[in-house]
Every structure is written in structure tokens, then in C-alpha cells.
Amino acid sequence: MIQPNIPESDRPRVVIVGGGFGGINLAKALKHAPVQVVLLDRNNYHLFQPLLYQVATAGLEPDSIAFPLRGIFKNQKNLHFRMAEVKAVRSEENVLETNIGEIRYNYLVIATGSNTNFFGNNQIAENAIGMKSLIEAVQIRNYVLKQFEESLLLNDERLIRRKLNFVMVGGGPTGVELAGAFAELRKYILPKDYPELPIHLMNIFLVEAGPRVLASMSEASSVNTLKGLDFLGVKVLLNTAVKEYDGTTLKLSNGDTIETQSLLWSAGVKGFPLEGFPDSVLLPNGSMKVNEVNLVEGYSNIYAIGDMARMLNDERFPKGYPMVAQVAIQQGAQLGANIKNSLRGKVMKAFRYKDLGSMATIGRNRAVAEFAGIRLSGYIAWIAWMAVHLLNLLGFRNKLVVFINWFYRYFTYDRGTRIIIKRGAANIVKLGKTMDQTTASNI
Amino acid sequence: MIQPNIPESDRPRVVIVGGGFGGINLAKALKHAPVQVVLLDRNNYHLFQPLLYQVATAGLEPDSIAFPLRGIFKNQKNLHFRMAEVKAVRSEENVLETNIGEIRYNYLVIATGSNTNFFGNNQIAENAIGMKSLIEAVQIRNYVLKQFEESLLLNDERLIRRKLNFVMVGGGPTGVELAGAFAELRKYILPKDYPELPIHLMNIFLVEAGPRVLASMSEASSVNTLKGLDFLGVKVLLNTAVKEYDGTTLKLSNGDTIETQSLLWSAGVKGFPLEGFPDSVLLPNGSMKVNEVNLVEGYSNIYAIGDMARMLNDERFPKGYPMVAQVAIQQGAQLGANIKNSLRGKVMKAFRYKDLGSMATIGRNRAVAEFAGIRLSGYIAWIAWMAVHLLNLLGFRNKLVVFINWFYRYFTYDRGTRIIIKRGAANIVKLGKTMDQTTASNI
Predict the structure, then answer these.
(1) B127 touches chain A (CB under 8 A)
(2) Which reactions does this protein catalyse (chains A, B) (predicted)?
(3) Is some CB atom of chain B closer than 8 A to the CB atom of A397?
(4) pTM for the whole thing?
(5) pLDDT at A423 over 80
(6) Across residues B103-129, what is the average pLDDT?
(7) What is the CATH number of domain A13-116+269-343?
(8) ipTM of the complex
(9) Which of A43, A155, A416 sits opposite B398 (nearest CB)?
(10) Are A298 and A203 a contacting pair, CB within 8 Å?
């Protein structure tokens, strides 16, 4: 009974798997192309991942960083969106297997992004918390607020420490931004909301295996970031790796241990490969080998972009491009132009990443930013960070809601969305037999 | 190990169960009283229930109508909040049993509000959807959007109708407001987001057993409301009761059937009684018999307010006051004053409800309102409705976010928060053993 119901067309069909930065920019670039675009995503929204950490730390409502994909493309007549989980590719038949049936393609673009990478450490994978999806960020917010509430019920200092210590692993932008936001929770929210809790029992740690934080930026920015984190009271442990974590005690490579029930892992990401490809095109981190026009090695009509693509033709990036939004955005836009070129019989143009710079916020009035040879830090970098993020956020409503949250937080030092959304024992929705199991249990 | 950890005090302790309209107004009224106030709620936020229907219909983000209880009382030094599920009362010992341990009280106030009442019809209770909590509203939003997405995958018209027909049961303000909001989804969102879906297959029904909608208001307002619903295309069935509902087919008392997978039940509410009371004080609808100062019949220090209280001393309301926010607010405030009186040795003053009027919105530019002998309808009532709701919403941030959503929706006809928040198969958070089961599964 279930079938994708995508109207057949005389035009070649471009199927895009994933509505992230790469997928939506590719789809937009194909707006006036003589193709039929089919966009698939497991969610019905595009997620603005760079602000996920603010949802996790009760600074923004989840809805403010998610934008309905149907809204983005409501004026694009050649695009059909379907909410679907893609299972596998049968490339010899040009068919995609999904949970809503089989979908034929002429061009297939894999833009599935990445997920948390625990590098095969099952003990850590089981006990640590990743943050790559909206539901994960909401769960972290619920979990963190619950630790505060439950700490009030304890008398044993060691158990309280376990609940109030928060450890971020990975000194990249996500780890730094999370650590900064947790430190601000400690500084501005804890004393007001929980005056009974001894603040010295709450500590924020940032653990980084390498010699510096924000290693992709300049030495000066790393130093600035360290100073900012130190000012906020974050304990940064450099050249330190995680050895073991059983859910309550973290063992570090330097022999130290930290008691914590909250290990937030942002030390790595890996691709989301589809089934149906030979091992030869898949890399250990789950991404796929592509040529200079994002064509997957050995295929003539299957492309991968963004975090899923490993492109090695740029001498500046011998190990491939970093897994960042800008690469996905640029590859999406250029692949769109290239598909249009190929339809007109022109050759595709090789992709070359244009580094627009990078930035990270540490906390109130503190950020670091580098672009076009300019290095900023402190207040001006923080303003630049906010402006860039607001401008890139999709949708007028979302921009306004995020702006108001920031404005409000700046002047009140408050975080408005510190609510725990859970089902109470007494008011579980009666979701009947006709509702899918997934709807009933997986909010 | 777990215990409430509420500091002992020489002052009498007032324990308030429930942070709804009644509970928070009582707690506020006790700010400068020589008592220790202990506020318990299963959630860490106060919910502004009158706007719940807008969350359910993708018009507002859940966070905008929830306000952290700790934020409300951050400057009230005599108040201690604990997130707790209250199980039972041992009134002979003045002790409350909760999931965080036992709590002693001098005054106990039951302000637990109400839940959906299916009047003992188990088949309907199993298959219909109630809307009394934030998680229920979010689940309805997810569910409704999922019906739209899944309709696209079907060819059988009967199955599509099942997914696109939405039936509200109960012609009170909640039913009317939900029906109006669904009709607006149909009118403004469906054609833009789902141009492939035939709009005539989506129908909104409002089923009311009595002879008119908004029966608590004037005949003229009922007529106005009917006209407004008719304009929006809502099919209103008066003098019609629900007989049976198996999850896909609804049988009505007039012999008709409606194919629907979405039956939203707002035909009644019932109290949330605590264990430990004799049947003699509990009424069939779960509320408790109280005297004119909200004292529960037969007790000297246990009070019930709001939806939980049935007060019969007012000759204007021989069956007791309606279960509305205003009664809870006024009873909370007055019980606070009365507890202060009793501590000064004065007698408590009898409660008398001051009806401030009532209002309901039907849709864009359409509402009905009645207060102080004045009857409004149409645009001016709609503006009044928005002003009253904005002013009563707690918190500057929430007011701004709600205002922006309304402003945006008014000019764009769009609904910004139409996102489905669910766990994807591939990115379930790894919530380890140390996280409580409730945190892991009950977002």
C-alpha cells in the first residue's frame, strides 16, 4: 500500500538523500534546471547544527533552529520532498530502497552528513552522550536539568559531584562552545535557581587529546580561547585522552579520574554510509571517496557531498576537506551547477573549497574568528559570530526568535528554556493502536 | 539516599502540590508570610494551558508557553521547590508520600488540576487523544504532521480520508479553538506544503452532545462562533454524541460514521486525586468536596483549590464553579490571604468567585468575548483575546516569542513550528546505564 507516489516526469530525476547544508543548497541550485528533484530526509526539517549546543544548554528552543523542509521549497515546483529512511542503493538498477518503497534515480546524491564517532570504543559509546541531532540536544537539556534537580536530594558529596561535574571531550568548536555554555549555566543559573547547591561541587572539564583547543585555527586564537575558558572557570586538560568511562567514573590517560555522570562526546564524527557500496569506496570514517566533481569512485551517476565526501585532489588539504558546513554548502551549490552543465553537454567544473574562515564562541562577549587573513577575538568576534549565525539561520521567524533569546539573555543573564519535557506517569498520552509505534514512543 | 532535603524551619510549613494557576498564585500570596512554602510539581515548569492548542497545531513552540518554576520564585526566599510525584497522604501523621521521600506538612494544599475525562469509556480512552500536558500537545503536533506526510504515500481515498479527517469532541473553548486552528492548517498550510494532496479529503469536525457550542457563554456568542467555524469550513455536529471509536471509524449517536485516525477529546476533565482520602470526600469526577474556605470536608489542615475543589456554597453555581483558570487563580490568591489571616488568629474569609468573563478564539480575526456585561465578537474580540493571553503569559521572553509567532503568522499565513521531533533509527542517543530510564525514554 505504501509507495513514494512521486509523479513520473520526462525529465531526468535527481534524488538527494539528506536535507542538511549540502542537500538543501544542491536542491536550491537545481530550481530552474530541467530535472525532477526528489529530496529525502528522515526528518521533515532542516537543522541548523551550529546552534545545537545552545538548545542542549537551555539557551534556545529546539524549534528555533529547525526549519520545515517543505517551507524552504514551497516555491520550487520541480522538487518533491518525502520523509523517508533510506536503506540501500541498487546501483546496477539505479534504484534506492527506502522505508516508503523503491525510488528510481538518474542522478543520486548522498548528502547524509555525519554522526558521532566513538572510534570503536563500545564502553564509551554506551555511556557517553553525542550531540548531532535535535532530539539528542533536547535530551541533553532534559538530562542536565534533571541532574540539578536530583542533586538537591543527595547528601553524599561524591554523588553530588557525579551529578554536577560535566565533561566535554574534544577541543573543537563544539566542545569549546558547549564547555563555555555549561560554565555560564554554572555562573548565572545555578546560584539563582539552586541557591542550596554548593557551586564548588559543579565543575566543567574540557578534555582534548592534542596540544591545543581549536586546532584548526591559529595558535593565537587557541591561546585566546584558553584564556576565555579559564576566565569562565572551565578546567581544560590538554594532551589528555579518555581511557575508560563506565558511566560514573572517567579515567584519563594522565592517570587522573573524574567523577561524572555526564560525558559529552564531540571528539569526532563519522559518515552515514548507505548499504550497497563495495568496501573499496568506503573509508574507515564512513565517508566515500569522490573525484574532483564529487562523483563517487567507480560510479557514473552517484555523487557524495559534504561530510560524506572525501575529496583528495586539493593540495592544500592532503587528507581531504574538514567536515564543516561551508564545504557542504559549497559542494552542494557547485554540484547543482555541474548537473546543469552536464545536461547542456558541458564538462563539470572541478570543485575547489573557498575557506571563508572559522569562528567559535566561548561565552558572553567572548569569541574568536578568523577570515580573509583577519583575526578577531573578544567582543567584536562575538558580535561577528552572532551576526554570521543569525544571517545564516533559515527563516525570518527563526531569526527573530533566536535574536530575542540572545537579547533577553544578554540583559537578564537568564536562560529561558530550562524546562524538562517528559511524560509524567499520570498523563501519558493514550496513543491508540492506529498510531504507529514510532509516533507513540519516539517523541 | 534520596530524600527531599528541605531545610527544617521554625515556621509552619505549607506544602502545595501542583504548580498550575492555583498553586503558583497561592505560593506568591505567601511570599511575605511567616511560613515555609514547599512547592511540589512533577514538572519543573508552569504551563500556560490556554495556549496548548496552538502548540498542538504547530503555531507555537512548546517552550514559549512553559515557564520554569524556579524562575518564577527565584526571589521568594521562603519557598522551596522540589520536582516530585506525590503518591499519597497520611493525614493522621501530616505526612505526604512522594517519589523523593516523605514530606511533613502543617498545611497541605492540593492543587493538582485536572486530566482528560473519558467518562469511563475504555474504548475511546484507548483510541482518542487528550490534550492536557505539554508532551501531549507536542505529540499531537508530531502525529498530525505525520498524517500529512503519510497521506502522500497512499492511493486509496478511504485511507487518505482516515489520515486527513480530524474530529474534535466537545464544543467548549478547547474544542472550538482546536477546530478553528485545524481549519486554518487546512486552509493555509496544506495547499502550500502538500500541493499534491486533494484538500477535499481533509475535513474538520466538531462534535458536541449539547445543543450549542460554548454553552457557558451567551446564545449570541454561540451563534457567532458557529458562523465563524462554518466560514472556516469546520463541520459542526450539535446534539450528537460519540458512540464508539475503534481508532479508524467513529460511530455517532445519529447513526453516521466518520473515518478518522485522529479523535481529539476535549469533552471533559477530571481531577487528579491523591491516595489516602476516604471515598466520602471524593466526587465521581475526581475532585474533592471543600467548604467555603477551600478546606477539604472533614479535615482541619488540608485544602483543595482550582479544578480539584468542588465548592457548593455559592448560590449562583449550585453544581460548583466551572473548572477554569480564573477560579484556580482567585482561590489560590485568597487561600494565601486566608492562611496569613489564620496565622494572625483571624477567621478565614469565605471565597466568592468573581467572574471576569470568558473568551474563545475561532481563527484569524475572529473571536468571541464576554466580560462585565459587554459582549464582543469578530476582530475586536480577537485583539482582546490576544492581549489578555499575552498579558497573562508568564515571563518577558515568552511574551515576546509568542508575540513574534503571532505577528509572523498574521502576515505570512505560515506556521513556523511544523516540525516532527522524533528519534531517527540511526541516531538514537546512547543514553548509558547511569541515566535514569525515565530520562532515556520519556522525552
Answers:
(1) yes
(2) a quinone + NADH + H(+) = a quinol + NAD(+)
(3) yes
(4) 0.92
(5) no
(6) 96
(7) 3.50.50.60
(8) 0.90
(9) A416
(10) no
CATH of domain B13-42+84-116+269-343: 3.50.50.60
Cβ contact A401–B396 (<8 Å): no
What is the DSSP annotation of A295-344?
Answer: BBTT-SSEEE-GGGEEE---TT-TT---S-HHHHHHHHHHHHHHHHHHHT
Q: pLDDT of B410-440, one tens digit each?
A: 998 888 789 998 754 333 333 332 333 333 2
Annotated catalytic sites of A, by residue?
Answer: 177
Q: Does domain B122-267+357-412 have CATH number 3.50.50.100?
A: yes
Residues of A in contact with B115 (CB under 8 A): 426-427
Catalytic residue from among B61, B177, B184, B370 = B177
Pairing of strands A302-304, A107-110: parallel
Give A163-215 pLDDT, tens digit per residue: 999 999 999 999 999 999 999 999 999 999 999 999 999 999 999 999 999 99
CB–CB of A308/A1 below 8 Å? no
Mean pLDDT of A329-351: 97
B177 a catalytic residue: yes
Chain A contact for B32 (CB, 8 A cutoff): no
Q: Most A CBs within 10 Å: which of B422, B428, B437, B441, as the mutation test of the A interface?
A: B422
The structural domains of chain A, with segments of one domain joined by +, span: 13-116+269-343, 122-267+364-388
State the helix-helix crossing angle for A396-412 and B396-412, rounded to 10 degrees. Answer: 160
CATH C-level class of A122-267+364-388: alpha beta
Query: Is the CB of residue B13 less than 8 Å from the CB of residue B4?
Result: no
pLDDT > 70? residue B183: yes
Question: Do the domains A13-116+269-343 and A122-267+364-388 sit in the same CATH topology, yes or no?
Answer: yes
Q: Does A314 touch chain B (CB under 8 A)?
A: no
Q: Which residue of B has its CA nearest to A439?
A: B143
